[in-house]
Amino acid sequence: MPQNQQPATPALPQYPPPRPQYVPPQWSHSETTYREDNGFHYHPFVFHIDGGGTITQRASENNYDNGWNAGAGFTWYPTSLWQIGIRVDGTYSQFDARSPLLQQASTTYGTPVTSGTTKMWGGDTDLEIDLPLSHYVRFYLLAGGGWYRQQTTFRQTQLVNGYICYWFGCGPGYFGVTQDVARYNTDWHFAKNAGFGMDFALGPRTSFFVEARYMRLNPAGAHMDFLPIRAGFRF
Hints:
235 residues, mainly beta, 8-stranded antiparallel barrel, 9 strands
């Protein structure tokens, strides 16, 4: 071997390249009825506040003027696969008594009754079905039942002779004095309802809705019928 020549390096054996490490597939839940560009994004719980007017119906129309209502609640959507939710509402309503009911109270209590107010409060649990009309508008149906209680107060207003002050001075005159004649509370009564509404998306978690329901209180006895019309916000 020549003096400056290096010995040949023996060839290394060729081994097969190592197999890539197995990585399990990352499954993603993509089956949903809510699109990324949809104004309504899926959230399991959606809260709401609402208020509006209540139109008396049938026998209730004879005894009460139309009233007002206010409430709050939430809707639980168990899954994004179906746009079906369980909605829970708490509602307060108030009505003024009409002449037939005031005359009946005057006869019952043996004294003139000039005004009356009925307050009604309780809650409902309803099944809600959402029906999309576009990415930002949906129609929904409601049906269910709940429990309500009422408090009615009858009052009497009388003119009393006394001393009255006006903007130009003071002197003798008459003024009205109102006092309660009677007040009573009912037991809790079952109520059933059904209705529909429209929901308009304002953002990923906010929407504005308008709805109407037909409500029958105490359907098995001397029932009372109402038509609450409400508007509110969901968030």
